[in-house]
Amino acid sequence: MEKYYHVKCMDMENDFKESTTYKQIADYFQKYYDYEIIGAKANDDFVDLGNKIRKDCVLKFFTVKDEYGNKVYARSARFMLILSVEKVYGKKAKVVIEHSQDKGVYFEIEGVRLASNTDELITNAFLDVIKSDYIFTHLTVSRLEAISYFHKKKMFDKEMLLKYIPNTYINLYRIDNIYDYFYGKMAYSTKQINIFKINKLKKGFVLNLPTVFSPDKILEYESNDKIYNKMVFSVKKGGDMMQNNNENNINNLC
After folding, report:
1. Directed axis angle between helix 143-152 and helix 156-163, to 10°?
2. How many CA atoms does the CB half-sphere of 87 hold within 13 Å?
3. Nearest-CA neighbor of 80 among 234, 195, 211?
4. What is the pLDDT of residue 247?
5. What is the DSSP string of 160-218?
6. Interatomic CA distance for residues 13 and 63, integer angstroms
7. Which residues of the chain have pLDDT under 70?
8. Looking at residue 24, what is its pLDDT?
9. 134: which residues sit within 8 A by CB, 6+ positions away?
10. Contact status, residue 37 vs residue 30, Cβ threshold 8 Å
């Protein structure tokens, strides 16, 4: 006989089979939310929507309008950006990405020669990634194995980052055929991250995303030299160097 778990969500209580994913439970409660559910918390733990329920719990769901949900949206969009750039320029392209203070993410692309309409090319690739409805797949791997893997792929920024993390195991995510390390949860699929705009900004670009104050549309971007200089300084100071890798099987970790 299949086991059931008791779930409390909002002011309601339901029982779900142990094989049920949080995404399936989210779909059940979706009608009570104004925006699509992209994150979840079971008791005191944030969980991936693709995970299966393991115990009785109090569930809280998040949308792009919530602070946590908005962070999930932005994190997922950054990963999709990396994939989109690879689809346009190949795995030699390196995305140097840094948060801005103006409703967007400033990034530059290194390692390849850019076309004059790069913003349009990446936008179209990003739309294809959305349409493909890739699942953000979560994997837990040994930190030492991940360090060795990133070193082999010359992703030295990630290698150095993981050396200073005390955890024995770390989380990697995969979409399509690329893997990367992120501190935090992702959305369930790329189809959920469907509002964005990419603008040119001098030597780089800005990926504009919804905010908690404007969750269903992109506010018009206004170039600001003071903000631009701050963003460029942040990138040159270190930023968050994210490289692509095109492996088909995470078992190549060594």
Report:
1. 160
2. 20
3. 195
4. 40
5. HHHHT---SEEEEEEETTEEEE-SS---SBGGG----EEEEETTEEEEE---SSSTTSP
6. 20
7. 99-103, 221-254
8. 98
9. 175, 176, 189, 190
10. yes
